[in-house]
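[Meeting: bench + compute handoff]

Bench side (C.D.) handed over the final construct sequence. Compute side (W.E.) agreed to return the predicted structure before the next meeting so the bench team could plan truncations. Sequence as handed over:
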Amino acid sequence: MSQRTDFVSVRQSGLPFDTIDEVKAALIGEGYLADQGLAAAILLALKMGRPLLLEGEAGVGKTEVAKALSSILSAELIRLQCYEGIDASQALYEWDYGRQLLFARALQEGEIDPERRVAQLYGPDFLLERPLLKAVRAGSSAVLLIDEVDRADDEFEAFLLEILSDFSVTIPELGTVHAKTPPAVILTSNRTRELHDALKRRCLYHWIGFPELEREVEIIRMRASGVSDGLARSVAVAISRLRNLDLIKPPGASEAIDWARALEFLGAETLDTEAGRVTLGWAVKNHDDLRLVEPLLETITSG
């Protein structure tokens, strides 16, 4: 039986859910309200042993999927935050050169048992494990989150594709580390650049869009439990209107939740123009956007 089939078998037998509705219920238990499409994508990615690539605007809850999933699966969340200039060593492993130098000096000066050969300079004691190697070693007991992969360059994306294909890492001094059962993998992208087709083919793809009005009200009520239905609804309506403007950074669900919490903290029962003006920075986080929104605030917060 192939390794990939083994992975599917282990995942299927170890999952705490078997249907889309059960996935949705499990996510709700972690405070995450998923629609049918996202719940189906999570279920299929786990059962088929494929990485799940989540794209969407910032703040729509992509990273939160991995956090909720790690809790549901009772698995360690291992996060690789991508950024411009990240390379393989920062994602896989590095050697602790400072400790190696101290060890070499102590060995030379006879402070260490000579039986401990110099070869041990490149042994496990001096290996700094980074997220990808850690996830390969953890295997199915981990959820690997590769966050904002679109921020990395083409070369790193190609490197990730290789890792995700076989879940093995070769350390020349120590040998090859191979995941017997690979971890669940979630990749996120804010689509600041287009990812290559090769990486997309390796993954199950799902786009997370901004929620519809009623669903956003539910999300706010779930994540900001002290907020009344009236306040949650007025915030959701205002957020929807903001998204219809030509903003550089449209507010996501996370901004809606924070805005509602801020208003509730100030004792507001609904979102009116004055309350909106005082707390607008929770929803609009770009100076040019603020200049566009402020003259329209009465319209945005009305009704």
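W.E. noted at the follow-up: Residues 229-243 form the longest helix (15 residues). C.D. will use this when planning the next construct.
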